[in-house]
Structures are given as C-alpha cells and as structure tokens.
Design a protein that fits this description.
The protein is of the alpha/beta class. Helices cover about 55% and strands about 10% of the residues. Strands 3-2-1-4-5-7-11 form a seven-stranded parallel beta sheet, sandwiched between helices. A two-stranded parallel sheet has the order 6-13.
Amino acid sequence: MDTAQSSIQGFFAGRSIFITGATGYMGKVLVEKLLRSCPDVKEIFLLMRPKRGMGIDDRLKNLLTNKLFDKLRNERPSSFEKLVPVAGDISVEGLALMPADRQMLIDRVSVIFHSGANVRFDESLKNMIFANIRSTRDMCVLASSMKNLTVFVHVSTAYCQIDKHVVDEILYPTDIDWRRVIEVAESVDEYILKILTMKYIRAMPNTYVFSKMLAEQVISDYSELLPCVIVRPTVIISMMDEDPIKGWIDNFNGPIGSWLGGAMGILHVFYCNPNTRGDYIPVDWAIKSLIITAWKRGIKTISEDKTVHVYNCSANNIKQMTIEEIQKLGFEIFQEFPPDRMIWSPTVTFTNRRWLYYILMMLLHFLPSIFVDGVLKLSRAKPMLLKLQRRVYVTNSALSHFLLNEWVFKNSKFLDLFEMLSAENKNFRINYNLYDNDIREYCKNAVIGVKVYLLNDDMNNLAAAKRKRNRLDFLHNIIKTILITFILWILYRKNILSNIVNAIAYIFYINV
C-alpha cells in the first residue's frame, strides 16, 4: 500500500505547506505539531505581516521563543529551518503578496491550512468582510492556481451557524451573496456600512460569526475546483495531553478569562445562564483534527471526490459541564494555586438577569474601582482599576449571547476521525478518558498553565501566594462583617429591624 494512503507522516513527507494565522493560538500549535510529528515535511510557508516595526523574520524568531517549541528545540532544532516566512496580510486584497512570493507558493505548495482570521467580536463589519470573507476568496483564487494542490483546509467556527439550535456536520446554504457583500464593503463608506450592519448580519450576534458563515459559502462555491475541508472548532482551550505541554495556553479563551478574573479578585459578577452547558475543546485535539482531515481528504483527488468535508470539532458526547460547574471547579482549583498578583478575595455571583447584572456591576465593580482609583490618584500612583472594569464589562457583554444560550453541535464525523486511526498514526490519537473521567485533572493543568504561561508566575512562590490569599480573605471577611453590622445598626435605629422581626414572627405564627 502507498505510504501516503496509510500513514499521516507518509502523506506529509516531501510536501510544502502554506499556513495563514501561524502566529495565532491554533497556528502556533499547528506549526509545532507538523514539525514534530511529520519530520519529513519539506517546508512550511507562514503568511506574516510586519507588525509594530518588526519584520517577518524577527516575528518568526519571536514566535519560536515560545515555550511551546521547547520540546522540539531540544529534540530536533534543525526542523525550524523548514519554516519560511512570507510577507502578506489577510485584510488586504490579494493577501498583499509580492508577485515573486505568489509564484513561489503556486509552484511549490500542495497543502493549505487557512486559519488566519480576525476573531474580535466588536470589530466593524467592513474590517470583518475584508479579513474573513475576502481573504478566504483570495486564498481560494490563489489555491486554484497551485499546480500540486491536494487539499485546502479552512478553519471555521461552530458558532457560525448559531441561528440553528442543532448544528450538523454539513454545509448550510444562505440567501446572502458573499460577492455582493464584498463589493458593498469595497465601495461604501464605513459610516454608512456601520448603519447597515444590523440589516446585513440579521440573527447573528456579531460581525465575527456573520463573516465566518459567509466564508464557508466562499469555500462551498470554490469546491468544484478545490479539494476542500471545513473544520468548525467550538471554544478552543488549554492543551489536554503532554503533546508537547499539558495545560499550555496563550490567551484568555472560554472559561480561562472568567477563572482568572475571579481568582485575581477583579471579577465579582458574571452575566451568564449558569445552567447552560458550554462546549470546550482542547487545542491539541483541534490541531490533530486539522492534520487528520488534511490527510483523509488529500489522499483522494478532486475528480474522485468533489464534496466539501465538514467536521464539527466539538466536545458534544464526550464531556460537557454547565457554566456554573466549570467556573466553580476553576475557582476551587485556583484556591490551591492562587495568582501571585491577586488584588482581592475571589467571590463571584452568577446571574442571567440583566437588571441585576447592572446593579451588581455598579455595586461590586464600578463603585469600588472609583474609590480605589481615587486613593491611587491621591498617592500619585496611576489609576487603573476603573479602566480594567470597563474592559471586563465590555467583554462579558460581547460574550453574553454565547453565555446565555446553548447549542448542540453534532460531531460523529469528528469523533470517527480518531476511531479510524491505525497504530502507525498513534501520535494523532486523543485521550478521551482524561476529559471524560478526570475533568478536574485537566482543569488543574489548565490553571497551572495560566499561572506559568499567561501570568509568568513562579511556581516556587506558591506558598507566598497562598499567604497573600489568606490575608485578602481575612480582610474581605472583616469588611463584610463591618458592612453588615453597619446596615443592621441603621435598620435598628430607624426601627425598621424590629418591624421586620415582628413581621417574620407574625408570618411564622400564622403558618403554625
């Protein structure tokens, strides 16, 4: 049997790969996994744009300093020589590629992973159309010219179809013409387009999911020419397995942000439906699915198979917890591993009532922040807490649609990817048991990952962090006791307390 047919390593051997979004969360892990688990890959082209005065070569060097690459650096440092940065920008028409670079990609690339996207929920419609829809069209145009292309993997999101309660692993049609949308964005003033945003996005909660929905239509329309795969991850969170680092993370996705906000003493009220089940997928599972789907689709030519392969990269049928359960578990673990720089005792209230959320935000977030910032100003220090709390409020509000609602993402095809793997592809299997049977162990590794990779905390200082946590807990309880005592005293002085006691006694007497 042909090695490429039976072996993932064999399929990628000698191939040139093109990746967009390589500096993003999934992109980093994809680059590392390909280099380490497919050592015979010929080269990997990475689309990068110069940023903050840093050229693409410097950006690549900076990328490789990440601890994610430590294992590869120790085992096979020469593999980094296979990484080739290519100057470009997904938000610019034609991807801002130089003619020579474009021709190089056309001549040499046989596998594309298009994971580059603007993932901000509050971005303008114009920017989202350019970065997520037009860029996908431009990638398809480029791919159509490639002489040796075997597979085009497009990274979408499971939430691009959330106008449906149940999302299956299929393409969904839409009556919105993505070509017309691009034309409008290119010709209409941004102010006017902002006014038209709600008309365009319809039932979608933000411009991000709207743009990703139309990006799938772009892939669908080009699938007659290209061997396409669409992978729809849900919420990507910390690394599950030691492949290469348990708990590794580089962002505040999903429950990580609310865990950390609560553990730091910054987040005290969380706007969500606490009984909603969240769908979270470890980043290493998502990356393995990208590589497996590329291999599975790539071993068949476009003449043999013209269908678009669609996979919902979801934890449905594996392990799902309610938002309240997973938040409480995270806060509990953070008690064992408190952050070094926590500012107050962790106390978080969950509510799905918007009016109550506003009241608690004012009482527990904004008023204390105004007081603390006032003290900082008097002491000639820089005020910062109110600005931070505004960011917390904006983030929670932007995510509210996803925290108040629940969807079912069918994932049988996704799970089958791993069931079908033979022994020679064992490096791409996933560990269902840890997620299903010991979610606490996974969350513990995630919390440690937050401390080490996001906060840069020294784990040797854990005893000092616990002592600080105990002092803040004691101070919190003292202030709470004083406040309750003061309120009761006011009620007593106004004879309100005695009236309340009499009313309770009367009600109790009637019931008896």
